[in-house]
């Protein structure tokens, strides 16, 4: 079985560090770089990158944004293509769908499949594409940040292709959709209307809001995910039935927002919206316009984030159940990720750092990587999907946030742990937070891409072409190449990069 698509077999108690496959900055960087590049090449379709050949055989929205962030170090052209392919499936109302379906993949390979979503018919009033089949829900808005970072990796190529001038109107429309159609709580933040939209599908933070949803009958759907993953690691049938019911009701309502039984303001989703608003300001300035209004909007969003989701007693952000009106008292990794926000008050930054490294998440102490859920929570399970395992994208965001706010020692330690674990786990989808034991699919695209991004970090914390906090400091137009000492794989002349 190909290494980019096989699934792991759990070995209880295995400590990957003791197994001998440990990242060493001076010895293993080259092989780690080659391995990550091979994963991205193996998962490339010619126009986009699948997260996993078997388990996730289509294009996913925030996956592609993270993939582009890593691909920019190998082929800026391919990174641009990744984002352009996704944006080609954007709906008329501005939403970027969370899945763009590959018509060559059999319907039974993934559920919910295109015939469930019926985007071209059920989504007609919302401007769904007529010829491209997509889902009808969205995922976190990391896209503008990804587009800016991709541009900065090779500004000359980006300008020659008109990359930013083509993607900017689409990204602006995406943000308008979130800021206007999805402000369901009236407090200025975007709401998710399905757990799949937030990206952390099975988080215990959804349990209370989901309890109002009557699940779809088990006989009305088939769980393709169980063909590839262990049932004890995946969402329960009851939760999955609720996911299906929510999605079907949203579809049957023409994908109109504000009518369903689930609406949650999530800290990570809105933190990424804020970071991407700042990125849109920089894109606007690059195109000769002013980004002042967007920076001001990002500041207003930051104030709303603090006002509506910060819990000083818990020393972290919490989700807000918009329908019920209250904060959800569950500590998930999402509540740490507003560290991505540049203008966060210092006392909140300090509290978040304490929480990440304290008993609930154990970073730098009991855990190798920050878990997806509270170690002390009743629902914690180190292997069940988003109920405890550590994910590479959330830890990448946390590393970036720590570095942004000057926590350089902690950021460096997390970077080292991420690189160790990515290589030792075979670029796993997610891992046991204590041991680094791989779970889910191996050869997972965003794990490989974000490992590449961390490998391309210089001594000042910069990735190639961007600053440590993507701030307003001046960048020259040279493509900063910090690949010295790494065995690189330049993919710019391989299939899919031309035309």
Automatic annotation (TrEMBL):
Q: Which Pfam families match?
A: MGH1-like_GH
Question: Which residue intervals define the domain Mannosylglycerate hydrolase MGH1-like glycoside hydrolase in the entry?
Answer: 56-447
Name the domain of life. Bacteria
Bias (Basic and acidic residues) occurs at 460-485
Location of the region described as Disordered in the Swiss-Prot/TrEMBL record = 460-499
Q: Which UniProt keywords apply?
A: Glycosidase, Hydrolase
The record's family statement is: Belongs to the glycosyl hydrolase 63 family.
Q: Which PANTHER family match?
A: MANNOSYL-OLIGOSACCHARIDE GLUCOSIDASE
Query: What protein is this chain from?
Result: Mannosylglycerate hydrolase MGH1-like glycoside hydrolase domain-containing protein
């Amino acid at each position: 079985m190909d290494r980019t698509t096989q699934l792991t077999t759990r070995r209880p108690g295995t400590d990957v560090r003791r197994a001998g496959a440990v990242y060493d900055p001076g010895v293993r960087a080259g092989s780690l770089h080659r391995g990550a590049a091979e994963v991205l090449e193996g998962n490339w379709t010619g126009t986009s990158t699948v997260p996993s050949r078997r388990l996730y055989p289509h294009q996913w929205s925030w996956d592609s944004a993270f993939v582009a962030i890593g691909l920019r170090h190998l082929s800026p052209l391919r990174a641009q293509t990744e984002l352009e392919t996704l944006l080609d499936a954007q709906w008329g109302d501005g939403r970027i769908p969370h899945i763009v379906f590959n018509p060559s993949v059999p319907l039974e390979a993934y559920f919910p499949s295109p015939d469930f979503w019926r985007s071209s018919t059920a989504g007609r009033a919302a401007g769904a594409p007529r010829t491209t089949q997509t889902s009808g829900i969205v995922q976190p808005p990391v896209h503008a940040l990804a587009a800016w970072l991709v541009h900065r990796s090779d500004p000359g190529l980006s300008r020659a292709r008109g990359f930013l001038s083509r993607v900017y109107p689409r990204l602006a429309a995406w943000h308008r959709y979130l800021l206007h159609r999805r402000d369901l709580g009236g407090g200025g933040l975007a709401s998710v209307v399905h757990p799949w939209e937030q990206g952390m599908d099975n988080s215990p933070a959804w349990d209370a809001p989901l309890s109002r949803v009557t699940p779809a009958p088990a006989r009305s759907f088939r769980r393709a995910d169980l063909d590839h993953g262990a049932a004890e690691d995946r969402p329960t049938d009851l939760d999955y039935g609720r996911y299906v019911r929510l999605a079907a009701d949203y579809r049957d309502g023409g994908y109109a927002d504000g009518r369903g039984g689930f609406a949650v303001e999530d800290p990570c989703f809105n933190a990424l919206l804020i970071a991407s608003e700042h990125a849109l300001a920089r894109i606007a300035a690059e195109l000769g316009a002013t980004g002042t209004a967007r920076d001001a909007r990002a500041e207003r969003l930051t104030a709303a984030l603090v006002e509506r989701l910060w819990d000083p007693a818990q020393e972290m952000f919490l989700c807000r159940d918009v329908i019920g009106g209250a904060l959800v008292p569950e500590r998930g990794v999402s509540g740490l990720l507003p560290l991505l926000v540049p203008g966060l008050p210092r006392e909140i930054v300090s509290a978040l750092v304490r929480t990440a490294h304290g008993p609930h998440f154990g970073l730098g102490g009991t855990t190798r990587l920050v878990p997806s859920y509270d170690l002390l929570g009743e629902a914690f399970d180190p292997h069940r999907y988003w109920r405890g395992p550590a994910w590479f994208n959330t830890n990448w965001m946390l590393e970036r946030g720590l570095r942004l706010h000057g926590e350089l020692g902690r950021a460096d330690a997390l970077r080292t742990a991420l690189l160790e674990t990515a290589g030792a786990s075979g670029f796993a989808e997610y891992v046991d937070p204590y041991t680094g034991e791989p779970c889910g699919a191996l050869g997972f695209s965003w794990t490989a891409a974000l490992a590449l991004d961390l490998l391309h970090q210089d001594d000042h914390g910069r990735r190639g072409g961007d600053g440590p906090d993507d701030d307003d400091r001046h960048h020259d137009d040279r493509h900063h190449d910090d690949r010295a000492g790494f065995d690189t794989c330049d993919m710019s002349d391989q299939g899919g990069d031309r035309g």
